[in-house]
Specification:
The chain contains 15 helices and 18 strands. It is α/β, with parallel strands linked by helices. The chain has a domain of 37 residues. The chain starts with a helix and ends with a strand.
């Protein structure tokens, strides 16, 4: 009955009603606090001291968002003072001074803490100062910690804390300021003890956060194996990622999302090698090239699966369409022939409906050729309406120039919103005719994107 009532509701508060039904219900609920997962929710607007005096000594979950009031800070502080009962801490968009105040209260051991999310206020890009957690934060130990998420927060003693957090399942370090740069070598050392880690998010705030390549590389004797890791999210420089993935193996990896800062040249030989050492990501046979208003990405997945499908995404943070195209061409060309040869479907789409006005009209057909060249085994090519006007003429020129190594086995060309007449239709007809004469027929069909 308890589970039925709280199912789909705000579990942390709805159960309060049940203990007020009658004395017997109150006794039954409070007799099994762990089995019923009872928690007291403390918000910035909650009169914490009065509430904790009224309720039994249950675990405490602290949840609050930005507020500059002294009462808010006093309520959160009052909850944190019960360090032996705090089970979870979620503080979002908190001003630097307040977050440092709360961190000062958390210098004691928190033996029951399983979830910690500290997200500082970083809205002011130019003048925002990241809060700094003291070395004595959590008394330097968090043995029961399951999830740790720090956003725009400096924590110099993080490596020491991670070495004691052997139960950690999820580690999120996002919006890392350049002043809090953590080298790939240091990250790998931290990860070496996290044998239960399933999710790793690593995101830098500045493109300048990259390894110093002139100082030489850390000698690689053996790779660190992360046996439980299934998800990796990364935002940063390609040099940093290369140094990181060269030092780790993740045999159970299932989902990879990578976004690089904009740069002219991409040299990423280690990333494909890292992926090739992961069984789940070997049989990807569908690729989507997705152009967005502020980024572009290549997404590899399995054509036969739609739910919980292994997926690899590699992208570039950039607004200029010509740079987007050039960067993705470099990234695709970095991949060895063996995985690419399995790809049978290629989608080239505009992910944002408002992207088309930003697309440049002076991009040469050879640039599209560079993007298509790494996919010789694609049988079906899908092109969204906003890009067909540029892609199809490039295909026409490729066929006319007898460039046989590009889309040589293409069988179907699917164009979103294809009209019975117009420049796209005419270019497609010429492409089909040229391919017919060369003995490589292609069928053109209208495509309605779901």
């Amino acid at each position: 009955m308890f589970a039925f009532y709280v199912d789909g509701s705000d579990y942390l508060e709805e159960w309060h009603v049940l203990v007020h039904v009658c004395q017997r219900w109150r006794y039954l609920v409070f007799a099994s606090p762990r089995r019923l997962y009872l928690r007291l929710l403390c918000k910035g607007t909650t009169p914490v001291r009065e509430m904790l005096d009224f309720w039994p000594a249950l675990h405490i979950a602290i949840l609050s968002k930005q507020s500059k009031s002294d009462k808010y800070a006093d309520n959160i502080t009052a909850a944190l003072e019960h360090n032996d009962r705090v089970w979870a801490v979620h503080l979002f968009d908190v001003p630097t001074l307040q977050l440092e105040l709360f961190a000062g209260v958390m210098r004691k051991p928190f033996p029951e803490l399983t979830l910690l999310q500290l997200h500082a206020n970083a809205k002011n890009e130019s003048t925002a100062q990241a809060p700094v957690l003291p070395d004595s934060f959590l008394n330097g130990s968090a043995p029961r910690l399951h999830t740790l998420s720090l956003d725009f927060v400096l924590f110099p003693a993080l490596p020491k804390l991670l070495l004691t957090s052997t139960n950690l399942n999820c580690l999120v370090l996002s919006n890392i300021p350049h002043s809090g740069y953590i080298s790939p070598e240091a990250i790998v050392i931290c990860l070496s003890s996290l044998t239960r880690l399933q999710t790793l998010h690593l995101g830098f705030r500045s493109p300048s956060s990259r390894p110093n390549q002139t100082s030489g590389r850390w000698p690689l004797f053996t790779r660190t194996v992360l046996p439980a890791l299934t998800d990796i999210w990364f935002l940063g420089s390609s040099e940093y990622l290369e140094d990181l993935v060269d030092r780790i193996d993740a045999p159970q990896l299932y989902f990879v999302w990578i976004m690089f800062f904009n740069q002219l040249i991409f040299n990423i030989p280690q990333l494909p090698r890292f992926i090739s050492r992961t069984e789940n990501l070997k049989a990807l046979n569908q690729v989507k090239v997705d152009f967005l208003s502020h980024s572009a990405r290549v997404v590899l997945s399995r054509q036969t699966e739609t739910v919980n499908c292994p997926e690899l995404t590699v992208g570039i943070s950039c607004k200029v369409s010509e740079w987007q195209l050039s960067s993705l061409a470099q990234i695709c060309s970095s991949w060895p022939p063996s995985p690419i040869s399995l790809l049978e479907r290629l989608d080239i789409i505009l992910g944002d409906r408002d992207t088309r006005p930003h697309w440049q009209n002076d991009i040469e057909n050879t640039q599209w050729l560079e993007l298509l060249h790494p996919f010789p085994s694609v049988k079906n090519l899908y092109v969204s309406e906003g890009l067909a006007l540029y892609v199809v003429p490039a295909l026409q020129e490729i066929a006319r120039e007898r460039v046989t190594e590009v889309l040589s086995v293409l069988q179907g060309l699917f164009l979103e919103g294809l009209q019975p007449s117009g420049p796209v239709h005419d270019a497609a007809e010429h492409f089909v005719a040229t391919r017919q004469l060369s003995g490589h027929p292609v069928a053109v069909r209208r495509w309605e994107r779901g």
